[in-house]
Structure formats: structure tokens, C-alpha cells
Amino acid sequence: MTGWHNNLKSLWKYILISALHFSAGSLLLLEGQTQIISNDHDLFIFMQSDPDYINNQRERYSRIEGSPYLNKEFVSGSALYNRKKYLKLDMRYNAYEGYFEFRVEDGFKYFDPRITRLDTVWVGDVTFVFVNYLVGNNIKQSYMELVNHGNTKVYLLRRIHLNEAVPAQGYAEAKPATFEKMPENIFVELPGRPATQFKGKSSVKEIFPDHAATLSVYAKKNKLKLRNRSGIVELCIYYDTLDQ
Fold it and tell me: Which residue has the higher pLDDT, 132 or 103?
């Protein structure tokens, strides 16, 4: 009886140790992967939306001409947050407020990046990434459209500005408040650095000091226009082939 009891104890010990190894391995596997979630109810665990702000927003926007959205319509998309990818979301980007809105049954909620920073957002066929970027000596943050997926990233910063209402003065008529779409700014991001605005030929030396001469020759030879998206993307693709 004692021998059987000892064998049983040994068996349970083996099972327990095996289970612990399996659990640890499973946890490591999960930690190294992105969890895919198609059920959007999980979003409400971390969603931070002030209902009063949303109601006030509707009232404020009704007095402003134009739109704060890149696209007013909600478009099917997905979002990556804390290594979890959420699918089947109807979203739109409020470029004035700087956040994504997510449609729900009774209206919409929003992802406030100060609280819930989505790492990557896919809206239709457009990819947005939350980016650190330089303005002078200061680092700011914003969602930007990713247009080059290589080692050297190229982003578009797309903003909408609010022009305040102007009261009538003398013979000049009053002007209503308007949303104005601003020109796109192009930013380049090297690994481990904040993105820097690319402003033309002068930016080549600033962003790529080690290969400025080589890149300038390449741009001239291939007649790249370094103030538009396609020319800057082609230059960055070529830069990624250097030193390889």
C-alpha cells in the first residue's frame, strides 16, 4: 500500500511539474504575440469618453462651418492597444481634436490619447500611428498617417484648424467660425528617434548627416521632388539600402 501511495504521489508530482512548465510556456507564447479580439465589448474596459464633452461637442460643432473630420463617415477598421488587436470597429478620425471616434449603438465614444493611446489604427486602407515628433527643441505627439513602412518611416501629419468667429466691424460683415483643412506636413522617423519634419533639400543633411552627399546625388540623378510625398518616400527607401 505504501509503495502504491508513493507511486501515486510521484505521478501527481510529475503531472503538476508538467502543468507548470506548460503554463509558463503558454504565458511566454502569449506575451510574444498580439492577441486578436473581434468582440468590441472588451473596449469598454479601457475606453475613456466624457459623455458631457461629447454632447457639448455636438452643440459646438453645430455653430461651425466645415468638418473636423478627415472623413465624416465611419469606416470599418481595427486598432492595436496594449498588444491586443481589436477588429470590426467603425471609426473616423477627428483631426481637430486629435482622436479617433468609435461608433456605438447610441452614438459614439472616443479614444482620448492622453488616457488611451492606441498604438496603431487601421481605417479602411489607411494606417495611422501614434508618433513622437520634434517641433523646435520640443517633443510632441500626434496620430500620423504612415506612408512608408520601411525601416525609415515616412508619415503625414494631417490637421484641421479652427478659425474663430469674427464679429462685424464697421463695414466688414461678421464671419462665422470655420474648420479649415491645413496643408499636409511630411515627417521622417529614423529608428529610436522622434520624427522630424522634412521641408525639402535642406532636410537631407539635417536628417541624414552621414549620407547627405550620397542622397543628394541620388535625388538629383532621379529628379526627385523633395517637397512631395512620393519623392521623400523614394529617397527613404534608397537610404534603407545603404550600409547593408
Answer: 132
Kindly state the cell numbers that stand for 221.
540623378
C-beta separation of 166 from 175 below 8 A: yes
Beta strands in the chain (DSSP E): 35-37, 64-65, 75-81, 84-94, 99-104, 107-111, 120-123, 126-135, 138-148, 153-157, 160-163, 177-181, 185-189, 196-197
Instruction: Specify which residues 81 forms β-bridges with.
Output: 84
Give the pLDDT confidence of 86-123 residue by residue, as tens digits. Answer: 888 899 999 999 988 888 777 787 777 777 788 899 99
C-beta of residue 117 within 8 angstroms of C-beta of residue 69: no
**First vs last C-alpha separation in the chain:** 70
The SS3 call for residue 190 is coil
Burial per residue of 55-84, b for 16 or more beta-carbon CB atoms within 10 angstroms, e otherwise: eebeeebeebebebbbeeebbebbbbbeee
- Is residue 109 within 8 A of residue 40, CB to CB? The reply is no
Among 34, 50, 181, smallest CA distance to 111 is for 50
Residue in 69, 92, 67, 70 with CA at minimum distance from that of residue 79: 92
**Maximum C-alpha span of the chain:** 109
Distance from C-alpha of 14 to C-alpha of 16, rounded to nearest angstrom: 5
Whose CA is closest to 115, among 210, 46, 60?
Answer: 46
Q: Please list the alpha-helical segments (H only) found in the chain.
A: 2-31, 51-61, 202-207, 212-221, 229-239
C-alpha closest to that of 161 among 145, 139, 182, 133: 182
